Amino acid sequence: MSNLVQPSIILLKEGTDDSQGIPQLLSNISACIAVVDCVKSTLGPRGMDKLIQGDRDITISNDGATIMALLDIVHPAAKTLVDIAKSQDSEVGDGTTSVVVLTGAFLNAAKPFIEDGVHPQIVRKFFRQALDMSIQFIESYAITYGATGDDKRTVLEKLAGTAMNSKLISAYKAFFAPMVVDAVMCLDEHLPIEMIGIKEVKGGAVQDSLLVKGVAFEKTFSYAGFEQQPKKIMNPKIVLLNMELELKSEKENAEVRISDPAEYQKIVDAEWSIIYDKLDKIVKSGATVVLSRLAIGDLATQYFADRDVFCAGRVPEEDLVRMAKACGGQVQTTVNDLHDEHLGTCGVLEEKQIGGKRFNVFTECPKSKTATIVLRGGAEQFIAESHRSLHDAIMIVRRAMKHDTIVPGGGAIEMALSKHLREHARTIRGKGQLIINEYAKALEVIPRTITENAGLDPTDVLNKLRQKHHAGEKYTGVDVNAGGVCNAYEALVWEPALIRTNALKAATEAAAVVLSVDETIRHPKSERDPEPSNPYPQRARPGGRR
């Protein structure tokens, strides 16, 4: 009986792709490394940009999170890299390319062990031990600047400049770094990022960009009476609305039945009385500025103009929310019972011409601090990349104001970590020594990539870095300007320690996730979706034909 052939058991649908074992794990690692190679050349001050053409637009960027999101990766394991780039961008704001490159280096370091038969869980175990030692080392390695006043501002400007070193606007970092610091310092103690608005105005030079310490948004669609309204108001009272101020047209197929033609005039008069009643209540409330998320019609525009009241309809929702927080007003859905506590105020409202656009600028907002950066530039792609670069710099300055520890950049922290882990690896036995040693070697991918992207000899530069760090010069990093090495701390190449710790955690966890997957199941897509059955079949009407 034992020689009888056992029947096969089918668990998955026919056509399902079931790949498992070591070959599948190695395939996942190779897919992730292939993705890393796409963004590796963007790392560092001399990193190259990527031009990504979509269905309708073209994006030029060297921001890791932006590139990863636009690559439209379909490999299930490689999508992990997209997730960690997004998490790094939302958590810290910078270091998105570094975290992807580190993940690829960790997976590349683990690949030989997997091929030699080492269980992936063993690799994950010692990777996490190396991560814990790295975090502890960074805490002792980091420098607490603890500065106040002008000294603190200088540190923040250097951090913002370092964040922009690898960006398209690196040549203008001396211009933008103080602007970024001023924008963040305009905020309250909670540093809400949504209170900093960035507006784009095509045309002009980059140096024409400006910072508005308040709320500024582009002049919305307006009717003829808008030109008769005041263009500058001191200490205005501002009412914020989420309602229409115009005569509404009847809905499609609307029907009104009247028995006397005179009744039609009553209907028309009622519509006019409703809109005039709303406008009267707004003016009687004492408001001199009316902002609404919905439309303000020609009748209301002329009505306000005759009474020296400024109005703007179709204000973007994010700008209306910023106005509510900045001026202290409350967004109203009705004009009934409008009182002073519902109105906001600011120091000055002024309409300004910026490039080819007109902006409504509200400054000296007393309730909450806010700022708006107006970006100028020639090409649309350049302005969009400048927007992303400033966002990263703003996030870095915010984090630096909350966490006052910094580390030198230029690969200095990675080389110091590599040296520390190599020394620790010599004190342990077994497979852990080899795995931690490879983890330490993988950390050198950051200075190596920075060197390669700068057109330097990576072997020569890395040898110099190892010599300097072995001699105790732990702040030595890559000098892309002189083509060698330098003290990154004295060269003012600084970045918050939070960037490195978060990048190491995210990269190690992402590598651990990929190493934990030994089987991939792809369900076949049906060629044509079956038509849904109707649970309520149509029945013949009573009295109909049968």
Characterize this entry briefly:
The protein is built from 16 helices and 21 strands. The protein is α+β, with helices and mostly antiparallel strands and 546 residues long.
Instruction: Indicate the mean pLDDT.
Output: 84
Silhouette:
elongated
Provide the low-confidence segments as ranges: 526-546
Which range does the strand content fall in?
15-25%
Spatial extent as radius of gyration: 31 Å
* Strand-pairing-aware structural class: alpha+beta
- Helix amount: 40-55%
The largest β sheet comes out as: 5 strands, mixed
Number of helical segments with 4 or more residues: 16
Task: State the end-to-end CA separation.
Answer: 65 Å
Keywords:
five-stranded mixed beta sheet, 16% strand, 546 residues, alpha+beta, disordered C terminus, four-stranded antiparallel beta sheet
Structural notes for this entry:
The chain has helices at 22-39, 64-70, 79-91, 96-115, 120-141, 149-163, 173-185, 261-284, 298-306, 317-327, 380-402, 412-425, 431-443, 445-453, 458-470, 497-515; strands at 17-20, 50-53, 58-61, 143-144, 196-202, 210-212, 214-218, 232-234, 237-241, 289-292, 310-312, 331-332, 344-345, 348-354, 357-363, 371-377, 405-408, 476-479, 484-487, 494-496, 519-522. By secondary structure, it is of the alpha+beta class. Strands 9, 10, 11, 12 and 13 form a 5-stranded mixed sheet that branches. Strand 10, helix 9 and strand 11 (310-312) form a beta-alpha-beta unit. Helix 5 (120-141) runs antiparallel to helix 16 and helix 12 packs antiparallel against helix 13 (431-443). The longest helix is centred in the middle third of the chain and has 24 residues, at 261-284. The protein starts with 16 loop residues before the first strand and ends in a 24-residue tail after the last strand.
